[in-house]
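Help needed: design a sequence for this.
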């Protein structure tokens, strides 16, 4: 592995570790991880900055105000206030509930979900600022948590439960972020397609001094019928320079 690839892998591993450890890493841990690469002070400062931008404090924990919007903080405060109404459990009670949940007791599994709801919030904060609403991250985390408590029977030891649930919550949030990013790319591609067809239709309509047919647009631009029809559908029929009167027999709902 070359130096650049190694650097990237270490940074990725540290980011994951920081999230696993609640958004905080000791400076010594970061320095040791990069010791083999003998980075300069300026390069290490860039590493620290990268981690902080990913909501991982180095040397000292970050405060909510350091990376959350005011609206997000207000939402979290309201949500956590609601969670305060839930019962509190001693360590012994938590252990007993976890064991019962591992044995498949639905009531214990529901109680275990309640115990971890605040943890979902703390994990969601680590993934804030990645193009999704914090409220949605909490929702996805809660879904993953609810699924996770039903899968604890696969574990051998009770003390493995917290780690498994935390990992499932994080995986659920990461999958949601990835899905939203992919949908966003598709939306951008669709928007570009609509704008492209609209621009070409307007250009040809100005030249002909009338609305154009799909066939004329296909001939002059090289666009396929499906591409033009999809653009029309996605625009809600608002591409004004295309004459749709000749398309009455064409099914555009299937494109």
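Sure. Designed sequence:
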């Amino acid at each position: 592995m070359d130096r650049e690839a190694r650097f990237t892998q270490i940074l990725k591993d540290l980011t994951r570790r920081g999230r696993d450890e609640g958004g905080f890493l000791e400076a010594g841990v970061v320095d040791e991880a990069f010791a083999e690469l003998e980075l300069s002070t300026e390069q290490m400062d860039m590493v620290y900055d990268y981690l902080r931008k990913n909501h991982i404090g180095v040397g000292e924990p970050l405060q909510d105000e350091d990376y959350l919007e005011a609206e997000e903080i207000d939402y979290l405060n309201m949500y956590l206030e609601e969670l305060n109404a839930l019962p509190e459990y001693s360590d012994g009670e938590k252990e007993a509930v976890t064991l019962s949940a591992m044995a498949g007791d639905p009531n214990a599994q529901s109680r275990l979900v309640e115990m971890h709801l605040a943890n979902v919030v703390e994990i969601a904060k680590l993934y804030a600022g990645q193009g999704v609403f914090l409220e949605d991250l909490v929702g996805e985390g809660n879904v993953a948590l609810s699924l996770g408590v039903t899968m604890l029977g696969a574990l051998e030891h009770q003390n493995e439960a917290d780690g498994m649930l935390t990992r499932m919550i994080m995986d659920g949030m990461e999958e949601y972020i990835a899905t939203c990013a992919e949908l966003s790319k598709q939306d951008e591609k669709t928007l570009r397609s609509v704008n492209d067809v609209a621009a070409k239709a307007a250009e040809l309509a100005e030249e002909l001094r009338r609305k154009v047919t799909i066939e004329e647009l296909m001939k002059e631009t090289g666009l396929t019928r499906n591409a033009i029809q999809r653009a029309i559908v996605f625009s809600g029929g608002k591409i004004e320079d295309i004459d749709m009167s000749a398309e009455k027999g064409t099914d555009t709902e299937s494109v």
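The longest strand covers residues 24-25.
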